[in-house]
């Protein structure tokens, strides 16, 4: 039989709206999940034609050859010259990463077809002379094809893919599902759920560090933040207020909103799983006050949206299976694949949620017709299979083959009993009281609800083993990898508090008081950002205001898209997304110490030139030494500290922990 309160049948117009919204969400999340790459935005035709000045369209380039067409695509510019007898030749300008072996100007890789053509050589010479660098200012999802752009996205499309609209939709869905689950609970239950979310938001505003706690903070982009920065909602507000918001600020703020919504969304999963509105509210409270969740709430980590989306996916699947309203079941079923896809593209390892989502339906056997549960299981499996075989396997097959081996279970067992690697038993990360009440909750479920206990233990084991592929050296980084364990621990802890309250009320009250104070008791862990990577990120954010707009910044990076000032310079200013700086990487291939563009900037400096020596310069990188020696510099900002690695991947090859680190921003002395 169906589970849930009896409520009036939903109007058909509302069902239609919910179905359309589900279809829109699927299209929008599909767009959000695409990789981003250096892109050419619309409206830059005049700037592009200026690259060939004084040669203009239709003008003769060399005798008999004219520049007849300049096609601007999303990824490249294609120039066509026509000659005698209908002959033609093409020069393609693209991002240097797309053709690393081609001749390059400051911004472009230049590919001539055929090579050595006199007219194309003349065009190349004009581009080399006119290109000032920094042409590629944005990284956008690839379009369905790279055809020349003729018009901007429609208003409907712009708003449908706006990140702020997505946040509003996630908030509305969280509230709707919580209301639906608590409709037969006491009247105070829903206001209590909203109040828990508000308290959690207040705790995060006060305590969560505004820091880059993920890896690769200069290249990764969260879908919501990406589309919020480039959507019409923030653009309108920015123009109205004359405000500027950096991409980093937008990322951390949108993640903060997502984190604040998570306890409310969890109610829609905890209530049917635990069968008690009190347990659901306690679980939401434990997440709202979780030191680990508070620590990562105002950062760039993809685990934060993954927790919200997974809670909503569980809640929506329950509505699709058990709601008394046929209309709402249909709408939930239509929206479930979109929500699952959004969850999967947020972080590839979220594929581990798929067996849990199917397992949830197994727990609902007896509450809904078995045929309906099998259909939902097939829908979830098909969505997961489409993602797994469509993009995940091809993109991560090498990583899987290198990391997943027969020793993985043994590594997981070793991590299980090592406090540095198991944050559930690390007293600085997980409150010891929570671990104790979770054990009590497990014992209570063992006596009466073993299937639910098996589900929660499988959840912990699945993600614990899955994340044992990487075992970092710092507890703080391991807390990030094991952030998914916060939810099942909160669910077990909620059961434990109720079981303890039934037998030892005073003990349950004392445990609740300690858990309520856990953000304060664990504040040293929550606010610990004294790591190499985090210090550098904070420094370049401060440095942004010291470098005037339009300046050229030289910096050494291992990959072009990892430029520090490329990320901190990306901002929304008075409604326009712009790149504040012209970033020129120093490092060169094929045995050169410096790139020709960097050598040219040092030999004939632009009016405003800075040199940033960051973590990649540690260990005496030749490019950094060469740039420092090539000119006279003044120190604009500097920071020194003892090394404390945060992420082993980035720290590999660097001097050992405790060695001195010096970061500096220098301006050219005049």
Q: What fraction of residues sit in β-strands?
A: 5-15%
Total count of strands? 16
The poorly predicted ranges are: 1-8, 29-35, 144-152
Gyration radius, in Å: 28 Å
The total of helices stands at 28
Strand order of the largest sheet: 2-3-4-5-7-6
The end-to-end distance, rounded to whole angstroms, is 81 Å
Question: Averaged pLDDT, please?
Answer: 86
What characterizes the major β-sheet? 6 strands, antiparallel
Which quaternary structure do these chains form?
single chain
Helix content: 40-55%
Q: Which descriptors apply to this entry?
A:
globular, alpha+beta, 670 residues, 16 strands, 28 helices, single chain, 6-stranded antiparallel beta sheet
Give an overview of the whole structure.
The chain is of the alpha+beta class and 670 residues long. Helices cover 53% and strands 12% of the residues. It contains 28 helices and 16 strands. Strands 2-3-4-5-7-6 form a six-stranded antiparallel β-sheet. Strand 6 and strand 7 form a beta hairpin. Helix 6 (189-207) runs parallel beside helix 10, helix 12 (303-322) runs antiparallel to helix 13 and helix 14 (353-363) runs antiparallel to helix 15 (370-403). The radius of gyration is 28 Å and the shape is globular. Residues 1-8, 29-35 and 144-152 have low confidence and may be disordered.
Short description:
This protein is an alpha+beta fold and 670 residues long. The protein contains 28 helices and 16 strands. Helix content is 53%, strand content 12%.
């Amino acid at each position: 039989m169906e589970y849930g309160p009896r409520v009036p049948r939903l109007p058909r117009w509302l069902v239609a709206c919910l179905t359309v919204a589900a279809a829109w969400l699927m299209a929008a999340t599909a767009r959000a999940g695409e990789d981003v790459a250096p892109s050419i935005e619309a409206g830059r035709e005049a700037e592009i034609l200026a690259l060939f000045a004084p040669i203009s369209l239709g003008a003769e380039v060399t005798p008999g050859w004219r520049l007849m067409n300049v096609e601007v695509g999303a990824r490249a510019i294609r120039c066509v010259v026509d000659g005698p007898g209908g002959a033609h030749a093409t020069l393609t300008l693209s991002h240097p990463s797309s053709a690393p072996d081609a001749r390059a100007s400051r911004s472009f890789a230049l590919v001539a077809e055929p090579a050595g053509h006199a007219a194309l050589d003349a065009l190349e010479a004009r581009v080399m002379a006119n290109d000032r660098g920094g042409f590629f200012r944005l990284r956008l999802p690839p379009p369905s094809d790279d055809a020349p752009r003729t018009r901007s996205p429609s208003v409907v499309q712009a708003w449908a893919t706006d990140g702020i609209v997505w946040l509003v939709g996630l908030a509305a869905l969280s509230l709707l599902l919580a209301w639906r689950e608590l409709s037969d609970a006491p009247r105070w239950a829903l206001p209590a759920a909203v109040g828990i979310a508000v308290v959690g938001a207040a705790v995060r505003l006060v305590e969560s560090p505004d820091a880059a706690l993920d890896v690769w903070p200069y290249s990764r982009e969260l879908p919501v933040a990406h589309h919020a920065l480039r959507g019409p909602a923030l653009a309108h507000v920015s123009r109205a207020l004359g405000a500027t918001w950096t991409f980093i600020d937008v990322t951390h703020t949108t993640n903060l909103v997502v984190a604040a919504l998570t306890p409310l969304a969890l109610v829609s999963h905890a209530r049917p799983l635990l069968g008690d509105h009190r347990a659901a509210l306690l679980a939401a409270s434990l997440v709202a006050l979780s030191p680990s969740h508070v620590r990562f709430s105002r950062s760039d980590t993809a685990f934060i949206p993954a927790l919200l989306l997974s809670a909503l996916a569980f809640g929506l699947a329950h509505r699709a299976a058990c709601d008394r309203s046929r209309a709402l079941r249909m709408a939930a079923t239509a929206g479930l694949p979109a929500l699952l896809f959004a969850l999967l593209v947020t972080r590839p390892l979220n594929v581990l949620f798929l067996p849990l989502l199917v397992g949830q339906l197994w727990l609902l056997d007896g509450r809904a017709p078995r045929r309906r549960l099998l259909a939902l299981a097939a829908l979830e499996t098909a969505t997961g299979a489409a993602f797994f075989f469509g993009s995940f396997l091809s993109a991560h097959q090498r990583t899987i083959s290198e990391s997943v081996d027969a020793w993985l279970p043994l590594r997981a067992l070793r991590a299980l009993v090592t406090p540095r690697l198991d944050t559930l038993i690390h007293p600085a990360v997980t409150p010891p009281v929570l671990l104790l009440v979770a054990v009590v909750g497990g014992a209570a479920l063992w006596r009466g609800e073993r299937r639910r206990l098996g589900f929660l233990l499988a959840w912990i084991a699945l993600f614990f083993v899955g994340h044992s592929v990487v075992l970092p050296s710092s507890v703080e980084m391991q807390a990030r990898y094991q952030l998914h364990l916060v939810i099942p621990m909160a669910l077990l802890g909620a059961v434990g508090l109720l079981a303890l309250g039934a037998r030892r009320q005073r003990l349950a009250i004392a445990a609740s008081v300690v858990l309520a104070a856990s953000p304060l008791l664990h504040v040293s862990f929550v606010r610990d950002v004294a790591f190499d990577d985090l210090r550098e990120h904070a420094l370049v954010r401060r440095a942004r205001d010291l470098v005037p707009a339009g300046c050229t910044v030289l910096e050494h990076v291992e990959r072009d898209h990892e430029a520090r000032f490329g990320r901190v310079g990306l901002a929304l200013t008075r409604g326009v997304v712009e790149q504040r700086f012209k970033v020129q990487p120093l490092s060169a291939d094929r045995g050169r110490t410096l790139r020709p563009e960097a050598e040219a900037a040092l030999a004939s400096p632009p009016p405003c030139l800075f040199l940033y020596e960051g973590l990649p310069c540690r260990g005496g990188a030749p490019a950094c030494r060469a740039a420092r020696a090539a000119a006279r510099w003044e120190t604009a900002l500097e920071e020194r500290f003892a090394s404390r690695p945060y992420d082993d991947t980035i720290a590999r090859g660097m001097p050992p922990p405790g060695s001195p680190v010096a970061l500096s921003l220098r301006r050219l002395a005049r």
